[in-house]
Amino acid sequence: MVVTSVANQLRxxxxxxxxxxxxxxxxxxxxLVGFLAVGFEVSNWYLITRxxxxxxxxxxxxxxxxxxxxxxxEARAVAAQYGFVNGANNITIAVxxxxxxxxxxxxxxSVAISGYTPLLLSQVAGFxxxxxxxGALQKQLSVVAVxxxxxxxxxxxxxxxxxxxxxxxxxxxxxxxxxxNGCNSMSNTGSQCNGSNLGLGISFAVGSNxxxxxxxxxNPAITDPYSYLASNIPPLSSSGCGGNYxxxxxxxxxxxxxxxxxxxxxxxxxxxxxxxxxxxxxTGNVTVNTPxxxxxxxxxENGQLDLNGYQFATSNGxxxxxxxxxxxxxxxxHAPTDNTNGPSGILDITPPTTGPWKGVAxxxxxxxxxxxxxxxxxxxxxxxxxxxxxxxxxxxxxxxAIDKSTFGSKCLVMVADNFQISGTGGIAKTDIGQCSQAxxxxxxxxxxxxxxxxx
Length: 455
What we know:
Radius of gyration: 38 Å
Shape: elongated
Largest sheet: 14 strands, parallel
Number of domains: 2
Distance between the termini: 85 Å
Number of helices: 4
């Protein structure tokens, strides 16, 4: 009986599963607590790191916007507003303005914040951290933010290339009524305005910048943005001029050039290149007609376009680019002129809006360095021009107001070696959107425009 009873008890014990979960939980308690500890600890590290990153982002943007000698002071002050003070609670904040930029260069701003946080429950899982302060295990956390100074392009309607080295690419004396209607200017040397600020918005200059514009900003020199268009000018050998360049024997209302070089009435041009050889003199008003929906290029080779008191104008729906080309020396003048003692002539040009010469009204071949100056633009002759006036080696003297062409948009951009402005010299109000309509991409300079995070 005793043996049977013991056997029955053993069978019941073997089949009894009560308390098995308690045993399993007891065995799993240690790793479970470890996992929970690590999860809590990692979440805490993430929250601290996120706060550090926010502080670093704000601090590096502040440093880039500051862009001054105390940029690092401002960066650390901003980080302190987020609760991270350099040197306190083992926090280190490193600031530099010579950090490597992701796109190249080493002129970016960088803020690196590092600190330590004590270990809590993660030690249960055996994590020992990576630092020890006064016997307390610590975890080091660090973040980095990189920003660069952002710039905003500003469109220019007056650009002095100053390749001649003239001290002031833009200069005016006693021109209180001159008005540039808030457009911006740029000189690759200095700008000097006496008598008025010319009504300029921003005056950019490489050198000294005095009296011009509502705001003066230093800017690096700008590369000639339109010289590449010279590749559209065909070689002299293809012009058909054959070295025949009739020149004016004297100036005045009398016809002083060959009959073939006297212009009056309708000038009907074909699309593409059209050539005139030598000096051209108007003996009456000239209306330029081009094929409907097409543009034309009128190339005056080794000669001037003497308006002689008359009007040279594109008709409604027509578009032309007036190009002056040829050779240096020889006494040639490569520009529009008005050699009359009577009423001023009028140059009224609307440029093409498509094709290789889009937006270009008047273009001097950049290889020309002599006979390129214009002494009284806007006055003698009067200029009504839409688009680009490009005279890269010319001294362009503005003595009168320049307006848009009769059938063109409100857009005028002038590029010359240097500008001398007096009297009522000024340009029509330029609408950036209308320059786009005219097909012209305006030159630009830049101003600081906040900062941009790049890392």
